[in-house]
Each structure stands twice: as C-alpha cells, then as structure tokens.
Amino acid sequence: MSKSFDVVVIGGGPGGYVAAIRAAQLGFNTACIDEWKNDKGGPAPGGTCTNVGCIPSKALLQSSEHFEHARLHFADHGISTGDVGIDVAKMLGRKDGVVKQNNDGILYLFKKNKVTFFHGRGSFVAAKDGGYELKAGDEAITTKHVVIATGSNARALPGLAFDEELVLSNDGALRIPATPKKLGVIGSGVIGLELGSVWRRLGAEVVVLEAMPAFLPAVDEGVAKEAAKLFKKQGLAIELGVKIGEVKTSKKGQTSQVSVAYTDAKGVEQKLDVDKLIVSIGRVPNTIGLNAEAVGLKLDGRGAIEVDGDCKTNLPNVWAVGDVVRGPMLAHKAEEEGVAVAERIAGQHGHVDFDIIPSVIYTSPEIAQVGKTEQQLKAEGRGYKAGQFPFLANGRARALGDTSGFVKILADAATDEILGVHIIGPMASELIAEATMAMAFKASAEDIARICHAHPSLSESTKEAALAVDKRTLNF
C-alpha cells in the first residue's frame, strides 16, 4: 500500500528542502524526494548548490585565496613563510568535507522537522483522486500537493558532450586532480570567472573566451569595467566577441589536450590548445525523468516548467520553484520561492520581490549588486543620481590590505529612493545585504547616509556612497 502525504517536494536543493521544511512547520505531512548520491552511494541532499555549485566552489575559492595570500601578500604583513606549496588532493578533500557537512545538515533538518525523505528519483505516475500518484525511487506514494524543485543542468556546447576529464562542466571543474598548466574557459559568467580564478591562483595559465562583445553585460557598466581591469592585472586573460568553432580532444599516452578553434573579435581565425576546458555557457532547466507528460504538465520552449507569478503550474495543486522555472537561477531565489509556495499552500500570502534579489560573483574582488544598473535606468529614461565611494579611502580596507573597487548607489532624482546598489571590492557579498534590506523598506539614500555605521568597517563605504549621492562625502 502506498504512503500518502499532504505535500511532496521533488528535489532536495535549496528551493526543495526549504519548501519541505516550511511545509512541515505549517503542519503538513510532508515528504521530499532527492536522488543525489555521495561517493559511497548514500543520500546527498542539497542539489547542485551544495554538491557541485555554490558550496564547493566557495570552499575552493577560500583555499586558493589563502594560497595566493601566502605566496604574494603575507610578506607585506611581516610574515615569512619560505616556499609555499599546494596539496591539491588535500584541498579537494577539505572541499568534499564541507559538502558532506551540508548534506548531513539537511538530513538532520528533515529529521528535526519530521519531513519524510526518499532517496531516489521522483516522478509523476498519474493524476489520482484529486491528487497525484508519484514514484519515489522504488516506492509508490500519493499526495495532494506537489512542489517541483528539480533545478538545472550545465548547458553543453552543441556536439561537445561533457566527459568531465577534458571537457568540464562545473562538476568536473571542481575536482581537477592537479593544477593544469593551461586552462581554457568558454563563458565569462559567474561559474567561468570563479573557477577560472581558483585554478589561476594555483598556477594555471587561464584563458577565457566569451561570445558577448561586452564583459559582464548584466553587471553595472562601471563595475564591469573595473572588474575587467583588475582581472587582467591578476593574469586572467579574457577575450571578448569570439565565435567558437570546432573543439577537438586528443589523448596520446599520458598526455591529453583540448584544441579550440575560434574566430576573434576582429574576424581572425585562432586556435587555443589547453590541458582542460571548462564550458560555462549557462544552464538549462532539469525536467529529465520527471514524466511530465503523464499528467500533462506544461513546459515552455526551453524545457522550463511554466508557472504564474505565484509559482502555480497549469495543473491544480502542482507548483514549481527555483532553476526549473523563470527568473534568475540563484539558490537564494529558489529558497524564497520555496518558502512562499509552502505558505501559499497553507492559505497564507507568501511573497517574493523579484526586483530586489541580490546577485554575487565570488571572485577577488567580489562583485555584488541589487536593483537597477545605470544602463537599465538610462534605457528606461528614468532620472537618477549616482554616488560612489572607493575602498581606497576606507580605513578598514587599508588595514585589510585590499582597497580595490568601490560602492555605487543609484537613487531616484526626484524622491531619492534607492534604485540600485553595486559593489566591487572586499566582502561585497556581505555588504550587499544592507542595500537589499534598505531597498525592501523603500529607503532613500539619505536614510543610509543618516544611519551610524561602525568604525572602522567596510560598511562605512556604503554610508559614504549614500552621502556621495548628495555630493557630500566626508572621507573622499
């Protein structure tokens, strides 16, 4: 006899596991189905983010940044280290340990909140008695409400499959066993820049090929220009406006290579030979194995599940959140949608404000933004004022030894309401939270300018940028 639940969540990534926990907190008999496996075949909930995305990449970024600081910057602090080496295997082991802690943490949270967990693939079988029959691994279960949170997969180049040895997705790029001499990256988005930065710090020569004519077009132009300058100074070679041609892989004994033919921005045919190639050209919604056709679940042309503003699908009591639906493919966006859906199932008014979802690139310096960019405001014809403050003039940044970048605040020309905040510099990922909260409460630049910020702190740069909107900075 099949087990019956009020709510079943398919997918245990950030959107899925949070939706399951919130549904259970609201009194629903809830289950979550997830098929991720660890290296021993056991459950590894947390989705792409925890297993091959956000968490492991940040672990490697931290390790590689420590290595670079020891090699290049410790001497500035009077610290003598001698020759500094890197044990890549141990670094990867630490990364795997961090991932496992997060996997285990989610399983603990399921147990704490009385969420039933099924390890295996979740899929539809049929609509049945006003609800749905599902398959959870090898088990049959029934439920009234289904929340689909199956995430996304790396997009491959046409005709070039990921082998995760020479041609790497984010998965393979996180477990390269030794630092390659030369690393190619196709795509200069978040994944390409972050993982390219990791291996550059460890000694690889990194070349990034980007099809777009502009660098980081979704980022504020001033920030993108500063980032390009700083990355070039670090040794990250970035070529824009390229057209990728044939990609060949070859193995001769112990030697392997990837050869990329491409046309550069001037129309000249070029060839790049590398030891490894990371392909990071975006992600595609994951509906593989969901058996959507069994119940008539509607997908769009990209394979994403069609939903309305409340994350409702075309089917009664079937919802979808995260990367598998419209909107930015960000873990925190998925989490907010997951909570909102659980609350809507309970008859509450779950809410997600898509206009103030922050985004971060965890390079060094970090890049973070929320709200509108200058180019967006210009395109809209909206009047605005801009205030900018450099970390070079911030006392805490000087003490840290990291004064690159700035904070920029954009405010409405008439009302002074904050329309966007853009940061490139140390701890931008943490500083953006103040800006996001300010925008959530419809704060003005003057509001931030009038709030006392601790001294010395990096957050004083946000206050100074707010003062700069009215051309009255105190420290620059």
Tally of individual domains: 3
**Distance from first to last alpha carbon:** 72 Å
Describe the global form.
Answer: globular
Question: Beta-sheet strand percentage?
Answer: 25-35%
Number of helices, where a helix is a run of at least 4 consecutive DSSP H or I residues: 13
Which CATH-level-2 architecture of the largest domain?
Answer: 3-Layer(bba) Sandwich
The largest β sheet comes out as: 7 strands, mixed
Spans with pLDDT under 50 lasting ≥5 residues?
none
Mean pLDDT: 97
The CATH superfamily of the largest domain is FAD/NAD(P)-binding domain
Write up this protein:
This protein has 476 residues and is of the alpha/beta class. It folds into 3 domains: 3-154 and 284-352, FAD/NAD(P)-binding domain; 167-281, FAD/NAD(P)-binding domain (3-Layer(bba) Sandwich), CATH 3.50.50.60; 356-469, Enolase-like, domain 1 (2-Layer Sandwich). Helix content is 31%, strand content 26%. The chain contains 13 helices and 22 strands. It has helices spanning 14-25, 47-52, 54-72, 88-112, 170-173, 190-201, 221-234, 331-345, 374-380, 395-400, 428-440, 445-450, 460-469; strands at residues 3-10, 30-34, 116-119, 122-128, 131-136, 139-148, 152-154, 167-168, 182-186, 205-209, 237-239, 243-252, 255-263, 269-274, 276-279, 283-285, 318-320, 359-361, 366-371, 384-390, 406-412, 418-425. Strands 1, 2, 3, 4, 5, 6 and 17 form a 7-stranded mixed sheet that branches. Strands 8-15-9-10-11 form a 5-stranded parallel sheet. A 5-stranded antiparallel sheet has the order 18-19-22-21-20, sandwiched between helices. A hairpin with a 5-residue loop joins strand 13 (255-263) and strand 14 (269-274). The longest helix is centred in the first third of the chain and has 25 residues, at 88-112. The model has no long low-confidence stretch (mean pLDDT 97).
